[in-house]
Amino acid sequence: MVIVRPAPGPSGDLTLDFADITSRARAAVGGVSHYDLEIRLPDHRVLAGPLEDAPQGQVTFAIASLPGWLQVR
Fold first, then answer.
1. Residue 39 belongs to what domain range?
2. Which residues of the chain have pLDDT under 50?
3. How many Cα atoms within 13 Å fall on the side-chain side of residue 65?
4. Cα 41 to Cα 47: distance, rounded to the nearest angstrom
């Protein structure tokens, strides 16, 4: 499981570099082909999804309008 704790922007956006997150996960735990991602927000909500389904690169999205591969837990 990969856990990130980003600080949302003033308009409720998140900007995350999923290529970097994936690279760090592989460096920490090599030989694994599947990573579960949890994005833990300061208000204690958790966004979760498979890291493999995340777009590779830096992405900005609104917390109020999540990409289809993420869910609120």
1. 2-72
2. none
3. 5
4. 8
